TrEMBL record:
Domain 3-hydroxyacyl-CoA dehydrogenase C-terminal: from-to ranges: 478-580, 618-703
Location relative to the cell: Peroxisome
GO cellular component, one term: peroxisome
Record protein name field: Peroxisomal bifunctional enzyme
InterPro entries with a match to the protein in the record: 3-OHacyl-CoA_DH_NAD-bd, 3HC_DH_C, 6-PGluconate_DH-like_C_sf, ClpP/crotonase-like_dom_sf, Enoyl-CoA_hydra/iso, NAD(P)-bd_dom_sf
Primary location: other
Superkingdom to which the source organism belongs: Eukaryota
UniProt-listed Enzyme Commission number(s): 1.1.1.35, 5.3.3.8
Assembly mode: Monomer.
A Pfam family this chain is assigned to: 3HCDH_N
Gene Ontology biological process: fatty acid beta-oxidation
Keywords, sorted A to Z: Fatty acid metabolism, Isomerase, Lipid metabolism, Lyase, Multifunctional enzyme, NAD, Oxidoreductase, Peroxisome
């Protein structure tokens, strides 16, 4: 794990723990023993710590955090480094992060390869740098930079690290050779001034001012998230307390975070995100044995909001796009809008003027699909109508080259039905983007019964290339995301039973959702849901009225239909579930007594006796219904593993990452408790089939050993 050799009187400690040289127990032991050995060796003048492979250590081993750890701990290794009688040089390349950077800060000197990056990403794991990083970094950079770097988790380039005083030199070429050369130039100089534990924080007298300003920002930016504030408290300690006491405070804060629910969820999320990129199909094909095709050109059909957004994602990644739209005016508008959106990115510093021009150069509009014969992939993003989509796919099948992938951005429709009109169903898949497509990180990829492994591998790989988090779903009505989302349905029932829209929104926002469900509904438009419901009713041959309370034996709420009938279509009409001050162009929702009256009248007409609804019930009704459907999705193999579901929720619906996702949340509450409440709600609401308890959940609670391990057990520390 740590290779030891002596060259030119340098003891080289080469850390060899692929893939990221995490500081696992054996690495810590190797470093400790290596430094002690070199310190005692009269033939050694200096010690160099360097990473083998692609990086200097990128942090502590996160996997070790979920089991009882073993000494030597990182701070002990660090102090052994700092107190060595030989100068220690850390040679940084790749990503020197977290514990890796802390090891470097215990060293007497730091040399960085030009492309190296350094940072403290612990905050993203709900932690703080717990091996004295919060005490040492401010001693090098001053408080403001340390506060910014540690509370944001931002990685800084070698050049910036040099400017901040984190590294002593930036080098090009052979890192070891350059480090030796630098070492030779400073050998013989006293070590004491290089020991950060003996230095002070130069702007310590300003700490209260900086602390207050940073705290105000953090509370605004990270509502409900505790780690950033703990980071700040620890940095304040570094300026206010003697070194040893500051380190003790850091240790206490670190332990509190480490044993808390938020860090558990964030650490789970780190691995869940990586697990979601690995997939297995029922036929044995998998990400490990399937190679993607290279996508060099693409077409997007439909220049509405979704189509334009998808085109932006592709051109931003250098993939030329033909954007097809029959309506010339609409096409013209879309191309102009794409230009504006990219202009906005330039203004925000997310791309340069040249990059914007490069994007627009590879974007081309077309009025018909005849031009698509050479593209590698087509993504259709027209109106959600099966017949229309089938017509398009039938044409594409004739026009496109045989190797082209034909994908649909459908959010609900069966991929098999779309593929059935083509002669190459193995090339057909779903690529479901979330609005706005150029911002939302999720790409929900869908395979049908005939989709080939190459097609799946290609769309999963494409997602990664365009900067998305791809998750794979088997085809079904609504796929993982929309099928599972029962929040809106239960929220409407809760309003009928006694809550008000703003009560529910408040509870969901306090839980950590960025916006309550009724605010979201106003933003996307009440008419959207209305047309989906009308379409569904048409299919079933029924007519919906404002008094409809059951549809095909299922409970139904017509509250949103009432809003539609009143012309309250949401933000765009200035009125929906809330009222908006359109005169001042404000998007701020205002509680509207007219809506309350409408709700009360509705309940009176339907003879619903209203009651007091607790915040606990709101959470349970909205989330447990969703979780129950999640288990059914797992049971049916729509999602391969719970991580896939949780990642869909985090990146598609902005579910708070510090709660892990609905499935992880359920495991934290305790599956037994969740199951019992689902059974209770099933008894209370027999006309909502989403409360019919999932067999998988029942089995997990009663006979956990009979459940295949990939479906649950190895991913969570579920409390049964
Ligand atoms: C008696 C009781 C006494 C108690 C005393 C307690 C003392 C306390 C001491 C605590 C000291 C800890 C202090 C330290 O500050 C804490 C940390 O260091 S936390 C970790 C900080 N580092 C990170 O968060 C980095 C995370 N990794 C990344 O950001 C990226 O992986 C990367 C390094 C930028 C590389 O990105 P990519 O090249 O894209 O590669 P992947 O992301 O796909 O990763 C590849 C592979 O590696 C796995 N992995 C990555 N990082 C870690 C890690 N830190 N630990 C374990 N595993 C890691 C990753 O999961 C991938 O594997 P896969 O999941 O695909 O199998």
């Amino acid at each position: 794990m740590v290779d030891y050799r002596v060259e030119d009187q340098f003891a080289i400690l080469e850390i060899n723990n692929p893939p990221v040289n995490a500081l696992s127990l054996h690495v810590r032991e190797g470093l400790l023993n290596g430094v002690l050995r070199a310190s005692a060796d009269n033939n050694v003048k200096a010690i160099i710590l360097i990473g083998k492979g692609k990086t200097f250590p990128s942090g502590a081993d996160i996997k070790e955090f979920s089991r009882p750890g073993k000494a030597p701990w990182l701070p002990e290794v660090g102090h052994t480094i700092e107190s060595s009688n030989k100068p220690v040089f850390s040679a940084l390349h790749g990503t020197a992060l977290g514990g890796g950077l802390e090891i470097a800060l215990f060293s007497h000197y730091r040399i960085a390869e030009k492309t190296a990056k350094v940072g403290f990403p612990e905050v993203h794991l709900g932690l703080l740098p717990g091996a004295e990083g919060t005490i040492r970094l401010p001693r090098l950079t001053g408080l403001v930079i340390a506060m910014e770097m540690i509370t944001s988790g931002r990685q800084v380039s070698a050049k910036e690290a040099l400017k901040f005083g984190i590294v002593d030199k930036v080098v090009e070429g052979n890192l070891l050779k350059e480090t030796k050369a630098f070492a030779k130039s400073v050998l013989g100089q006293p070590l004491e001034p290089r020991k950060l534990s003996l230095c002070g924080v130069k702007d310590a007298d300003q700490v209260d001012k900086y602390y207050e300003a940073a705290l105000k920002e953090l509370l605004k930016k990270y509502r409900g998230v505790i780690a950033p504030v703990s980071c700040l408290k620890s940095i304040r300690g570094s300026a206010q307390l003697p070194y040893k006491e500051a380190a003790e405070l850091e240790r206490t804060l670190f332990s509190e975070l480490m044993s808390g629910a938020q860090s558990a969820a964030l650490r789970y999320s780190f691995f869940a995100e990586r697990a979601a990129s690995r997939w297995n199909l029922p036929n044995g094909a998998s990400s490990a044995n399937s190679k993607p095709l290279t996508i060099k050109s693409a077409a997007v059909i439909g220049a509405g909001t979704m189509g334009s957004g998808i085109a932006i994602c592709l051109i931003r990644s250098g993939i030329p796009v033909i954007l097809v739209e029959q309506n010339e005016k609409m096409l013209e508008n879309a191309l102009r809008n794409i230009g504006y959106i990219l202009q906005g990115s330039v203004k925000l510093g997310r791309m340069t003027v040249d990059q914007r021009s490069d994007c627009l150069r590879i974007l081309q509009g077309a009025a018909s699909i005849e031009k698509l014969k050479d593209v590698d992939i087509v993504i259709e993003a027209v109106y959600e109508n099966l017949k229309l989509k089938q017509e398009i796919f039938e044409k594409l099948d004739k026009i496109c080259k045989p190797t082209a992938l034909l994908c649909s951005n459908t959010s609900t429709l069966d991929i098999d039905l779309i593929a059935s009109v083509t002669s190459k169903p193995d090339r057909v898949a779903g690529t479901h983007f979330f609005a706005p497509a150029y911002i939302m990180k999720l790409l929900e990829n869908i395979y049908g019964s005939k989709t080939s492994p190459i097609t799946v591998a290609t769309i999963m790989d494409l997602g990664k290339k365009i900067g998305k988090i791809s998750v794979l779903s088997k085809t079904c009505d609504g796929f993982i995301a929309n099928r599972m989302n029962k929040i809106g349905t239960e929220a409407a029932f809760l309003v009928e039973e006694g809550a008000l829209p703003h009560d529910i929104d408040q509870v969901l926002e306090d839980f950590g959702m960025p916006m309550g469900v009724f605010k979201v509904s106003d933003l996307s438009g009440i008419d959207i849901g209305w047309s989906i419901r009308q379409e569904m009713a048409k299919k079933q041959g029924i007519t919906l009225t404002l008094e409809t309370h059951y549809v095909s034996g299922e409970r139904y709420s017509s509250l949103a239909d009432r809003l539609y009938n009143l012309g309250r279509l949401g933000l765009k009409t200035g009125k929906g579930w809330y009222r908006y001050n359109n005169a001042s162009n404000s998007r701020k929702p205002i509680i509207d007594p007219d809506v309350t009256d409408m709700i009360l009248n509705h309940c009176e007409k339907l003879r619903i006796k209203r009651r007091q609804i607790s915040p606990q019930e709101i959470i349970e009704r909205c989330l447990y219904a969703t979780v129950n459907e999640g288990f059914k999705i797992l049971e049916e193999g729509v999602a391969e593993k719970p991580e896939d579901i949780d990642i869909v929720w985090q990146y598609g619906f902005s579910f708070p990452r510090y709660r892990g996702g609905p499935m992880f949340y359920a495991s934290q509450v305790g599956l037994k408790k969740v199951y019992e409440r689902i059974c209770y709600y099933h008894e209370s609401f027999p006309y909502s089939k989403h409360w019919l308890p999932s067999d998988l959940l029942k089995k997990l609670v009663s006979h956990p050993n009979e459940v295949p391990i990939n479906l649950w057990m190895n991913y969570t520390n579920s409390k049964l």
